[in-house]
Amino acid sequence: MTLVFAVGCMAGCGGANGSASGKGAGSDEKPSAAETSAGGEAAGSSAASADSGSFETATYSLNQPNPESETDAFYTLSRLFADKVHEKTGGAVTINIYSNAQLGSGGDAALGVEMGTIDFNVDSTNVFSGEYTKLAVCDLPYMFDNVNDVMEFCSSEYMQQMQAEMADNLGVRLLGFGDGGFRAVWSTKGNIHSVADYKGLKIRVPDVEIYVDTFNAVGANATPMSGAEVFTSLQRGTIDGCEVPLSVGISQGFTEACDYVTMDNHLYNLLSIQCSEKVWKTMSGELQKVMLEAAAEAQEEQIKHMADVQQELIDTIVGDGCTYVDENQVDFTGIREAVKLVYESWRSKIGPEFYDACMKWFDQQRS
Predict the structure, then answer these.
(1) Domains and CATH numbers, the chain
(2) b/e sequence 111-138, b meaning 16+ C-beta within 10 Å
(3) Which burial class, exposed, middle or buried, applies to 302 when counting CB atoms under 10 A from its CB (0-12, 13-18, 19+)?
(4) pTM
(5) Residue 277 near residue 46 (C-beta atoms within 8 A)
(6) What is the pLDDT of residues 295-323, one digit of tens each?
(7) Closest CA relative to residue 270, chosen from 154, 163, 105
(8) How many CA atoms lie less than 13 Å away from 87 in the CB half-sphere?
């Protein structure tokens, strides 16, 4: 399925009322949601555009790590959010999208949001789990069975608590979420069919502790590395593989460097629309409400879109010559046993009381 965005890109740039060269909502070039924000009111679902006279003209920057592709989860969420803000403010507010991590990647971008040098960032929530370890509860291996389970947790009291604490303590407000997809193993050596197939594989992971622990637990050699280095490292044989969602692997061109893709669903990649609290506090209450509405609607539409393009992603991988193995061809018995060590070690890091409460919530959802 092809997603056609209603509003395209224009040259412009970052910081409110600033100017630079990112792409934002406003020209003719085409490029159920958790509705509560930390400390804010429930986001509504109105799609009506506002009169531009109700809002002061403003321009904001939004950083996202991947190329601009209609099948990329990060870009799709970014584009939908930017377009909806532009529409709802009658064209008064523009959010310029800086793709390919032009303003920073990973932890650097997260720090930029905290400091207020980046207005918005669309990325995985794991970029903050190093300094706010409660958030790692979203990154425990095999925690979620499907996207609906994830989004139910995103609307739970536990996520709302984390949103409030992040706004107060980190200066980062999570306005909404998105479907980043379950993560797959991309390899130059072979597919994964059981825990034995991980043994000794040098797998690139993001510089996130729980990811390192997960792959070491199953016998791989977890190798933290910047995303910008992965493609070249795969080609040179510096690493044997990497682990990213299907949409990311395709947008980064990994089908050219890897022959094998295994959808083992080891971790879920939860995306979020991250807003600097410093920037948030400069907005009027009316504009804050629009931001929440836009984030909730973008979240809902992005989730549906990613479900619609899932088969297209698989077809692209196979069509590019990779051997694709889905979760039905993987024996998870030994894998799930191995990652129990991750749960045991991360209970204390997340915080025993919070961890136990979340585990109880998950158990109740599954019963």
Answers:
(1) 9-180+271-307 (3.40.190.170), 184-266+316-366 (3.40.190.170)
(2) bbbbebbbbbbbbbbbbbbbebbbbbbb
(3) buried
(4) 0.85
(5) no
(6) 999 999 999 999 999 999 999 999 999 99
(7) 154
(8) 19
